[in-house]
């Protein structure tokens, strides 16, 4: 084993900050704790017992390996190895063989997972990763004999091919049991189902050494009545050399060898995906064209090549993370900001809400609002990809500003089956575009010509798209002058026009009422919060008239909130289709909701007259508890057709009184706006995984990434998390902590320094790369305040105010900040 575990650890694992890894020391975690491999198209999900699956670009249409959802035992199926010594069979990740291991570690790192385990003094070191720019997962497996005597060993690999379309693969057995085709050529096993007809792609699984056998038919390898834990071939000690004809094709290599005393042997397995252009599908004699596969396998056929690829991957991540690094008084804060929160933001950006252990990868496309918000967490790391994403998203907007709720990543076209009318959607485009411009200074993006409704004939500038977003609200106001909610706003489960009595109906797509009455105070807050930025942009570009027009609408909206959106101690949530208030003292349940408190205060409403503080005190009193801030209180205990899906959840879960983590940073930011750094940080620590590590058993999901939901105070299981990894929580928490709590905030004209921290925090240092220059910022808080920059020095010279200018690319500047 490498490093011995540090003292501070839970029973399941610990953070290794130096290697940027989370180290799991017990394979039986409270739930599978997973990692993601791949950065740009080729992806694998991998659990701490090597469960999971692989796909290329689209988790539904290009699924390479099979996974069974909601399986028993949990997380069965993956890319597995069996090591056999005499009658003893074990697996490097404990599963599937499940023989007790003498040692076990799973080290989830940035883009790779490493498994270190041993049994009978045979040590295994398995590293799985997707090399940069490669359509393959590489697995380096080393075995060492740590005894004085030679050992005879066998090694079996195993993966199960998915017949490409993950949904069809799970349902269309009458066809699929007859279509499967494979080919074995030396150590290369090819999966070529449907290649003979319309597919121009195949997959392969290779190892860089001779093999002593193989299997490609699942039944031949496992036995019809066995699970993965005890395959017949492994028990027998010999591969079947089977060729699959239909049924369920797999790939298994069989290796037999001797390890001398102290000897280490290494193998490299490559699971790859190949696309051949139409004219190059076949060789002259009509065979599968394997050239690209052989080249890919050759790219990683030696230890040196793999070591180099791993080093390149580490550099790639270091370079991304370097854009924002803090060295502060709390290691948990440091590891969240420097490593895990940024990492999760990248994964969420890549996967949207498609493939996790809670999202099946066959259901959802890219969400319009989700993808816009995900950008908040990555614009500083990958501005070029953010730019491309913004233009893709904008192209799914309609001319009236409304937007497809989702689009498909392979085609980038709006998803007509879901349609539109989620009336918050258009506004998020303003926020993401502005975040991108503030980070990069790339105002030119506004001139890009972008289609409406994916129709090139209907193209206009991106700026025109932002105007359309703004006007979509202006043109869709309800009886109180507040925005009509449509099918739902950010809260997908507040379906005020649905009135569904049919259990087979989707709350997301059904609208049974005209929708001319129900209004959202949350959208009102969003409109002002993002609309103010829109106005600033117009002024920056000299569009004075447009700025003034927009300002008049913002003013009118502020008045509407004052008159109809304030409930006495907090902001009201909405008006239902009968014009009755939701989130009001007048309600028995659902009296107060989190969303409008966050958004109205971020919009600046109530900051000057005390209402913001009153609302935040109400949040603190009624919504906040040990494990976060719940979405609404009291939770609904019965189904309300007039509210929709929100009232379908048992109390305390999901949108009905759960801590819907995505919304908590809105309150953190609001607290910073009223100067309450202690509360903002306190809320931050209730959710941030590294701070919750101590609750690992209760929390259940990974202690290194945010989950979408933590059960609320009225739930039967308060504090228990679900839906980890793919959630807007990642981006919003990152945005809140880096820009509002630590307070290093990009603006059009430079970096604003405006921390709002706990009074007891003595200071911190941040290295920020911004528009090509490096800012080495050191914040001191000797007077113990929460907020307020007393003096700033740049390169030793006192400067006025707290805005750092844009410096020349590649220049380096030392900034000292005195709070007081
Ligand atoms: C969930 C929401 C989710 C929506 C997406 C609902 O069942 O509660 O969180 O956004 O489905 O379709
Ligand atoms: C999850 C969805 O992905 C997101 O779009 C929505 O805002 C939240 N659920 C809240 O309902």
UniProtKB/TrEMBL annotation:
Location of the Glycosyl hydrolase 94 catalytic domain: 316-743
Database matches in SMART domains: CBM_X (SM01068)
Keyword Glycosyltransferase: yes
Entries under Pfam families matching the protein: GH94_b-supersand (PF06165), Glyco_hydro_94 (PF17167)
GO BP of this protein: carbohydrate metabolic process
Alphabetical UniProt keywords: Glycosyltransferase, Transferase
Gene Ontology molecular-function annotations: carbohydrate binding; glycosyltransferase activity
Domain Glycosyl hydrolase 94 supersandwich: 20-277
Keyword Magnesium: no
Protein name: Glycosyl transferase
Taxonomic source organism: Exilibacterium tricleocarpae
Organismal lineage: Bacteria, Pseudomonadati, Pseudomonadota, Gammaproteobacteria, Cellvibrionales
